[in-house]
Amino acid sequence: MRRPCSTSQDTVVAYWEYLRRYMEEGPKEPWELLDYCLPIDQRKEPRILGLQRLWLEVNGQILFQILLSPIFLMAWIGRKFAMATCKIPVWPRSVEEACTIEPGDPYVKNGRTNPPDAGLWFP
User: Fold this and answer.
1) Residue 10 domain-assigned (yes or no)
2) How far is the C-alpha of 38 from the C-alpha of 95, rounded, in Å?
3) Which residues have a Cβ under 8 Å from the Cβ of 101 and sit 6 or more positions away?
4) How many domains are there within the chain?
5) Distance between CA atoms of residues 23 and 99, nearest Å
6) Residues of the domain holding 24
7) Count of CB atoms within 10 A of residue 38's CB?
8) Cβ within 8 Å of residue 27, ≥6 positions away
9) Of all helices (H) and strands (E), which one includes residue 32?
């Protein structure tokens, strides 16, 4: 489950099926399907993450990646500017208190729990 955002109807339907299963059947199966989480919890995204996300939009299509490299570079610069000028989002205290994760919850998964072999370019 790598691309929750897409213009492909099949991808969008698959993403909503993932969410439906989580809400109706519990976290076990969706938790197992999730490969990694973006490492952006309580911090700004790492610089290389923006470039990677752009690059992965045409994943596996090397010719398009090469041809679109100048556009990716400009978009990445814009993304870096946005990250430099934006604040880190913070949930209100009431939401944080209502959504506290129990210690020892076996289904915790976030950017800090990514496996070392996730194939990501960032820490």
Assistant:
1) yes
2) 21
3) 108
4) 1
5) 15
6) 1-42+106-115
7) 14
8) 107
9) helix 28-33
pLDDT tens per residue across span 73-113: 888 888 889 888 988 888 899 999 998 988 888 888 888 88
Count how many Cα atoms sit within 13 Å of the Cα of residue 37 in the half-sphere of its side chain. 14
Query: d(Cα 3, Cα 36) in Å, to the nearest integer?
Result: 11
CB atoms closer than 10 angstroms to residue 61: 11
User: What confidence tens digit (pLDDT) does each residue in 19-49 have?
Assistant: 898 899 888 888 888 887 877 888 888 777 7
Region of 122 (left: φ > 0; alpha: ψ -120 to 50; beta: rest) is beta
Indicate the residue type of 44: K
Amino acid at 34: L
* Phi, psi (rounded to 5 degrees) for 3: -125, 90
pTM of the full predicted structure? 0.58
